[in-house]
Amino acid sequence: MLTQEFKAEWTTKMKIVFRFIFAYFSLYIFLMFVGGLFETPFKWIGKNIFNFSYNFEVSGNGSGDNTYAYISLFVGIIATIIITIAWSILDSKRKSYNKAFYWFLKILRIFIIMAMLLYGFVKVFQIQFPYPSLTRMLEPLGNFSPMGLAWTYMGYSKGFNLFTGSLEIIGGLLLIPRRTQTLGSFLVMGIMTHVAVMNFMFDIPVKILSVHLVLMSAVIFMTDYRRFVNVFFKNRPVEQYEYYDPVNERGFDKIVFWVKSIGLALLIIIGCIFGYSTEKSNGTKREKPYLYGMWEAKTFIKNNDTLPPLITDDYRWHYLIVDYKGRATIKTMTNNKLYYTFEPDTTASKIKMYLKDNELDISNYQYSYPNYSQLELEGFNNNDTLKIIFKRKDLDDFLLHSRGFHWINESPLNK
């Protein structure tokens, strides 16, 4: 089994295992960052080997499990097998890979640390899983996608975000000193296994990355698993671990110490600044826009005819939702959602609205805002005259928001 101690001569099995994992994870990390450079050959593979008839893009629009990612994974696996065989033939006389294994583990640790700190900070500052939006609050549960349900579940609790994010940050930080990397890798394995299972069970498209973070941390953990098993399962004493260091110089060690210390401080400072500023500008602590809220259309008059609130009417508005500055969502009676650019002019008491990416079709409304709970719009939508009277729907009307935490529950409230 591969260890971080110096061994003058490795077994054939150890050398083959090292060549495979070195080639595989190096290619995975390399293609993750520069895979877009191979768009032409990868698309050729998709169309000619896998017979994909549809077009697929490099970016995936936020998905880490898109077609391009799986083709990249396929290429990485095939290349790894070829490299391992060729390497084993051409370098069969080498007795060990102590130095290469040392630097390979360094790369794995840096990659995992960066990933864990990133995922940790976006949870601590509730950027990844924001509190359910106003539009989400009005969405019937049955309309949620599995991923949307997971995002809502996670986003509901600031405390749970803080807890899970802190664990991820701690796991990453424990990987920095070599003395604590076994504990860190074990913690990361547990955390990321939970994340990977959640990604699979809720159809969240980060399955490839989460599984690889588990595998990478497992590689680090397995270098010291015997001592771990002896301590926690066999109740046996363990000997001191003699880490191999190819650059065993005091001056170099001091440089590494200061680089680690300064780098760690910078990562934490940058992470906190980025997290706080993003949460302040786009997260739950953002400044609420003018007319913020959920406005339920109580009266809807089209061309002097009052339209009743029929659930089959796709024209009549049910809600006007203003959640973010410059944006608004209209939910019709059929629960269809229309996304608008929303530009209120408080001086002239006017609102300009147009469908997203369609500035040629502008609707202009005169509005009145007599009190906190009432809003009235009057204007033109295409060739129709509209007059709409809204009543504010408060967040406290939703049990999910108003229930809060209770130390004492005489009976469970599971609605």
Q: How would you portray this structure in words?
A:
This protein is an alpha+beta fold. Helix 4 packs across helix 9. The protein has three domains: 96 residues, no CATH class; 189 residues; 102 residues, Lipocalin, CATH 2.40.128. It contains twelve helices and nine strands. This is DoxX family protein.
Q: Quick summary of this structure?
A:
With 415 residues, this protein is α+β, with helices and mostly antiparallel strands.
List keywords for this structure.
elongated, transmembrane, alpha+beta, membrane, 8-stranded antiparallel beta barrel, Lipocalin
SSE topology sketch:
Elements: H1 12-34, H2 39-48, H3 67-90, H4 98-124, H5 134-137, H6 146-156, H7 158-174, H8 181-201, H9 207-222, H10 225-232, H11 250-282, E1 293-302, E2 305-306, E3 317-322, E4 327-332, E5 337-345, E6 350-355, E7 362-371, E8 374-381, E9 384-393, H12 399-402
Antiparallel strand pairs: 1-2, 1-3, 1-9, 3-4, 4-5, 5-6, 6-7, 7-8, 8-9
Mean pLDDT: 91
The radius of gyration computed from the alpha-carbon positions, rounded to a whole number of angstroms, is 28 Å
Main beta-sheet annotation = 8 strands, antiparallel, barrel
What is the helix tally?
A: 12
Number of DSSP E strands: 9
Amount of helix: 40-55%
